[in-house]
Every structure is written in structure tokens, then in C-alpha cells.
Amino acid sequence: MLFENEIKGAQEKLYEKGYYTCNMTEPYNDQYEVSDGNNNIMIDHLSVAQLIQLSNMI
Asked: Distance (Å, rounded) from C-alpha 1 to C-alpha 36?
């Protein structure tokens, strides 16, 4: 999978801050969503690049 290591790194950074990432379902399976510890979706429809940027900003 393309960018697999970058995605895992971004997910780990977000997890350390209390956020969880999830790959969205069809037809948006190339996009991600981020939720908090209460399973509230904070932001969705993120591309891989946006997910990485978000993890670096938080």
C-alpha cells in the first residue's frame, strides 16, 4: 500500500493525543476520519496528505 508507513506514523501520533483514525467505507475508502475518545467524529474526508498534516499540527 502506498504511504503505508506515513499513515501508520500519523495514526500513532494522533492516538498518543487521544484521537483515533479510521479509513472510511466505500465509496470514500481512500479517505480517513478522526474521532475523539468518546467516538465523536471530529473531522472526516481527509486525504492521506491531510491526515499527515493534521498529525503534525496537533
From this structure: 26
Nearest to 7 by CA among 54, 41, 44, 52: 52
Q: Which strands, in side-by-side order, build the sheet including 20-23?
A: 20-23, 32-35, 41-46
DSSP reduced 3-state for 21: strand
Residues 5-58 have pLDDT tens digits of 999 999 999 999 999 999 988 888 889 999 998 999 999 999 999 999 999 998
Check: CB of residue 46 under 8 Å from CB of residue 55: no
Contact 14, 6 (CB under 8 A): no
